[in-house]
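@channel sequence for tomorrow's demo:
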Amino acid sequence: MLFHFLIILGCALLCVGLRSFPNFVAQKLATLGILATSFLTGWLLTGHWTVGLFCALSWLLLPWLEILTRVRRVTLPVEKNLRRKSPPRADVFPALGELTEEVELQQFESLEDCGWDSEDSQQFFRLFYKAEDRTQAAVCMVEQDGLAFCYLSLSSRASDGKIWTTWDYPFTYSLKLVPEWKMNLVQAGKSFEELYESHRAFLQSNGVTPGSLLVLDPGEISSEIQKDLRTQVEHNVEVGVLVQTASGEVRYSWRGLFFIWTQFLRDLLRPW
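structure tokens (generated this afternoon):
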């Protein structure tokens, strides 16, 4: 019994150690290690592997606590009105200046700071545009329930209506993407230069030439983003992930709640 306890303790300490590293791969291994530790706890302490399997799988059902207690009650506006917004404080988003320099080093022109605030989250965008490549870029930060994360994105709009986007968003997306939105997900932690190279390779591999991209009016980019967000919400209402409330807002349907849960599982199993 003591030997079994030491094995469990060793696995638990390994998870804690991996969790302490500011590395996405280490964080992912730590998450999988928690499942393994739970399995070993149930198996080694009872002698039944089925108990261990139940202990491990119970973590996969844990997100339903938040889904049923918080996400189910969240309402979203159909129209997310972007407005000019002051950048977050340096202690909240210390990497903003460095990321801005990275983007500007690739010859992108800084346009404006904008965003929106909702009941449970705040989002900030610093927008850029490179006329030569007909490509927009953004440094983004999301604050939600006391947690904050940032990501980078690059988008090129084609004349056929498709939007080609490369980003390093660190989680699986909580809404279904519109068919016209073609996504290239890059591992978090890459530099903007690496993200930019990946975006150009993404366009080339799909036969998207510079001549097929729209020339954007820098002053209208925030308005285009706002339209994209509205289209995204409308698409999810159409496919049943969201439903409209009597007050004109939207919330997740039961189908949408299951969709969020499957997105959590995808994020858990994603190799990075």
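heads up for whoever presents: The first helix runs from residue 2 to 19.
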